[in-house]
Amino acid sequence: MSGLRDCYNVEDLRQEARTRLPKWIFEFVDRGSEDDLAVSHNREAFRRLKFRNRALVDLSGRDLGTTLFGKRINAPWALAPTGAAGLCWYEGELALAKAAAAFGVPFTMAIGSTTPLEKVADHAGGWLWFQIYIWENRNWTYELVDRAKHAGYSALVVTVDVNLGVNREFNQRNGYSNPFRPGYRTVRDILKKPGWATSVLLRYLMTTGMPRHANNPPSARSQHGAVLRGDNSTVVWDDLARLRERWPHKLIVKGLTHPEDARKAVDIGADGISVSNHGGRNFDSVAASVDCLPSIAAEVGGKTTILLDSGVRRGSDIAKGLALGANAVLLGRPMLWGIAAGGEAGALHAQKLLLREYELTLGHLGCANAAELHPGLIVSDESLSAHRSVAGQSPAMEIVR
Ligand SMILES: Cc1cc2nc3c(=O)[nH]c(=O)nc-3n(C[C@H](O)[C@H](O)[C@H](O)COP(=O)(O)O)c2cc1C
Asked: Which of 80, 259, 276, 398 has its CA at a distance of 20 to 30 angstroms from the CA of residue 129?
C-alpha cells in the first residue's frame, strides 16, 4: 500500500497503520484483551444484522447530519476517547481534534492522552468533550474535571467499565508497559519502523521528551503509571452523583451494557450514555455492544441521548446502530488507524469514507435522514430462524449464516 489514496475503506487504513506502526503500538490499538473474543464478537454482531432495502423513495433532500444534545453535527458520530492517539502520530490528539472540527463533529479527549488537554483546547477549535475515569483518589479526578471545565470542554465523558484493571497479555509479550519504558523488544520493533521513529518518536524526544500521560494531575505525577489503571474498587454510583453535582455541562456515562445500569445513570442525571464494551479491550467475555443496544434503548430511549461504540467499521454499521436506537456512534480504532496512516488528513479520510458508506446505506434503505432509521428495517438471523421454524422449514435450509 502506498498511502491514503490507496485506502478505500477502514480495513485498508488498518493495514496501512500496520505497515507504519511498531508492532507493540499496532497491537495495543488493534487487539482487545485475553483471547480477543470481545473484539471479534463486536464485528460478528454487526455482520449478523441485515437490512431489507426500500425502493423508489425520493432522497433528493437527504441529510447526513443529525442533532446531538440540541446541537447540529454534520455526521452521526463523535470521535471516541482513545489514549493512544499520541503514539500513532505526533500530537495525534490534536490531529484528531482538528479533523473532528473540520468535519463538524465532537472530539473526545481521553484522560490517557500524551498531549496536554489545554493545548488541544487552545489549538483545535470545534466541539470538545473530555473523558475521565473516577480514580480511587477522588481529588485527582476533581482536579482534572476542574481543569477541563476551565479549558472550555463542554461535555464530560465518565468511563465506568474498568475497576480492577484489565488483562492484556499481548502487551507483556511485546514488552510494552504503560507508561512506556524502552526495552529490547520495543526498541527492536521501533528500529523496524524508521518512518515512525523519526516522524513521531524523534519529534517528541526533541521537544517534550518521551511520550507520557500529559494530563495526570500534578499531585499524581509520582505515581505516573498507577493512575490510569489502578485499583478503583471503591468507586460506586454515588461517585457519579458527586460528579454530576460538580460538572455543570453535559455528562455522558460511557461503558454500559446492562439496562439497569443505563437506568441508574439516567436517574443520577446523566445527559447521555454510551453503550460500549470499550472496543472489547477490557472484558473479553462481554457481549457485543450492538447486541446490548436494543434492551437499553427500550429502557432509557427517549429519556437520554444514547451513543453506541465498539466494532463500527462501515457506514452500514452506523446505520444499524441508529436503527436500533442510538442517536449517534463513537468512532474508536478507525480514527487511530486514520491518523497512523496520515495524521489529520488520514482522520479526515476515514470520516469521508464512512460518511459516503453511510449515505449509500441510507439510499438503499430509502431513508432521507437518521430519524427515519428504525428497527423494522433490520432482519436478524434470529428473526429469520424464527420465521423458518414457524413455516416448518428445517434449519438445514437456512441460507443466511
Ligand atoms: C488504543 C485505544 C485506547 C483507548 N483509550 C480509551 C480511554 O482512554 N478512555 C476510554 O473511555 N476509552 C478508550 N478507548 C475505547 C474507545 O473510546 C471506544 O470505546 C472503542 O475504541 C470503540 O471500539 P472500536 O475501536 O472497535 O470502534 C480506547 C480504545 C483504543 C482502541
From this structure: 259
